[in-house]
Automatic annotation (TrEMBL), chains A, B:
Top-level taxonomy: Bacteria, Pseudomonadati, Bacteroidota, Flavobacteriia, Flavobacteriales
The protein's role, per its UniProt record: Acts on leucine, isoleucine and valine.
Pathway noted in the entry: Amino-acid biosynthesis; L-leucine biosynthesis; L-leucine from 3-methyl-2-oxobutanoate: step 4/4; Amino-acid biosynthesis; L-valine biosynthesis; L-valine from pyruvate: step 4/4; Amino-acid biosynthesis; L-isoleucine biosynthesis; L-isoleucine from 2-oxobutanoate: step 4/4
Identification of the protein by name: Branched-chain-amino-acid aminotransferase
Organism whose genome encodes this protein: Ulvibacterium marinum
Family stated for the protein in its record: Belongs to the class-IV pyridoxal-phosphate-dependent aminotransferase family.
Modification sites for N6-(pyridoxal phosphate)lysine: 197
Superkingdom classification of source: Bacteria
GO biological process: isoleucine biosynthetic process; L-leucine biosynthetic process; L-valine biosynthetic process
């Protein structure tokens, strides 16, 4: 166990890459900061975390990550305010969810100190990598994967917990997101791993998403695998709709990720008196509402995408445009959340976490 | 494109590990041969495969395999007969299935020559690693994973195709396999990736399998995720039952892997005049047959496990023992298949492939 940040050994880079980065034109998640945190699980215990220069990882070809997809991750963002304070958004929720995911994937849970102190120490060291421009942030990726060896299809005996960070711009390069309601492919099974941030959940979405992209959509909205009757989630985002003035989103389940942005939106709605319903949402209800003009908004919510208004959705060969509202719920939630994240407003919820 | 084995560059090991291996006491898939084949996909094309000493792989921490589980694999075995000829079993079917899996995981298909010539060259080089004792073989693991960088949840731009091999004993250390018919957790969704040999399919099974192991079972028999009404597969094996004298197995689907041992058994049954039915198999039918004594056998079929008789199954808190038959279908199929694999019999099917 580690008690304080001081106990994390730090090996600093000799040559910072920071001057080579164009902070005004940041892509998403493809430029990496100088350092990373690495922590090995061996002989039934997590060893002390170390911070070292961002560098390649060496693994045996039989490491189970390559063969059996045993991995979990979290997505977070670090923000810097005008006074150069560093902030995270609800990091303990990421910590809890990481362990929920790990349990489902038969992976060892991580002690809280390793996660929280590791984050703080790494972010303080690489603080200059946190962008300050609007819409940019330091994307923080804690992940755990099976490094133990062997071709037997069973849990590994060794794991690596790593935190790597990437100064990033917007997740969607275009502001206008057009989605396809999917009825052939599925993301998750009842009793499966859909609620976990497990690696394999994402690879399975790539091919159906490619097919949707070929038809002119950016993302797929997944429906239940049984009858494709209900809206589930969008893979990297939970989905909200606004019918008349009521906000609706599906309940979390063993198929649907318990998104931190999703639940923050529900809490803001409650506080602001926006009528919100968490209930199973039929595709038919959304299509009917689009047809009769009561569907006012549709948006995705997730750490990477924040709040992403959906401009149109496709269903059974038809496209349905969403109205462009002056005062949308999406922009209201986005402003409220990002104002808290960047320390531009009060935080009555206690979500902001000072690093 | 490569045309012949000669074009595969070979870097031989300077120090063979073979003398350190106890070939009379081989575990499954945890001792690795001297060499491996590595082939990189970059800039939209597969580069020439190389054979090199078995060694660690170096990857960027943002390699998509760690984050999004983009990986596929195959399981094969190489056999050596008394005249030291090397044999594979239906390798072209593994090649085809690898590409079927890759397509579903949005990964590039591999040219046939790379797979077949790569296998042959590697196996000839490491021929002394192929065990000759009954029940042992060289387990061959071709796999492809996403090595390309980036935290964006989208397909990688670089991949590695590797073939590694491991001299191996039996997959199940005990001959008596007891399975649990699962009704809470599920392996695959309709429209999902269950038919693919994709890494994430396996990690998702570990936790439910651990729970079953704690209750005294070795494996889980998966049922459909909708109502848990039908027998699907066992994760590393397809499932067969024998009711009276009729063999029954479920149809392959987008949830069930098209097993090579499975289809070989069906072909043998057809040739030998054993009545066989490929149809949806209700859990209730199996339980009823166990109760009224018409359930004669239950066995798993897969490359690693070959044909594994199931001694008992658990369902809703009760255990059902299977009879111990003198002349079981399982032993008949196992003998027929392994006789072909080890070149101890004629091969009227044309399944044996000389390396």
């Amino acid at each position: 166990m580690i008690g304080t940040a001081q106990k994390i050994a730090i090996e600093k880079t000799k040559t910072s890459k920071i001057t080579s980065v164009d902070f005004d034109n940041l892509p998403f998640g493809s430029v990496f900061s100088d350092h990373m945190l690495v922590c090995d699980y061996r002989n039934g215990a997590w060893e002390a975390p170390k911070i070292m220069p961002y560098q390649p990882i060496s693994l045996d070809p039989s490491a189970k990550i390559f063969h059996y997809g045993q991995s979990v991750f979290e997505g977070m963002k670090a923000y810097r305010d005008k006074d150069h304070n560093i902030w995270l958004f609800r990091p303990e929720d990421n910590y809890k969810r990481l362990n929920v995911s790990s349990k489902r994937m038969a992976m060892p849970e991580l002690p809280k100190e390793y996660f929280m102190e590791g984050l703080k120490t790494l972010l303080q060291l690489d603080r200059d990598w946190i962008p300050q421009s609007e819409g940019s942030s330091l994307y923080v990726r804690p992940f755990i994967f099976a490094s133990g060896r062997g071709f037997h299809a069973s849990p590994a005996d060794e794991y690596k917990f790593i935190i790597a960070t990437a100064p990033s711009g917007a997740y969607f390069s275009s502001g206008k997101v057009k989605v396809l309601i999917e009825e052939t492919y599925s993301r998750a099974a009842n009793g499966g791993v859909g609620f976990a941030k497990a690696g394999g959940n994402y690879a399975g979405q790539f091919y159906p998403t490619q097919l949707a992209v070929e038809k002119g959509y950016q993302q797929v909205i997944w429906t239940d695998d049984n009858a494709h009757e209900y809206i589930e989630e969008a893979g990297a985002m939970n989905i909200f709709v606004r019918i008349k003035d009521t906000l609706v989103t599906g309940p979390v389940s063993d198929r649907i990720l318990d998104g931190i942005t999703r639940k923050s939106i529900l809490e803001i709605a409650r506080e602001e008196g926006i009528p919100a319903e968490v209930r199973k949402l039929k595709v038919n209800e959304v299509v009917e509402a689009a047809k009769n003009g009561t569907l006012k908004e549709m948006f995705g919510a997730g750490t990477a995408a924040v709040v992403s208004p959906i401009a149109a959705f496709g269903y059974r060969g038809s496209d349905y445009d969403l109205p462009q509202l002056e005062k949308s719920y999406a922009s209201r939630f986005k402003k409220r959340i990002t104002d808290i994240q960047y320390n531009r407003s009060e935080d009555s919820f206690g979500w902001r976490f000072k690093v």
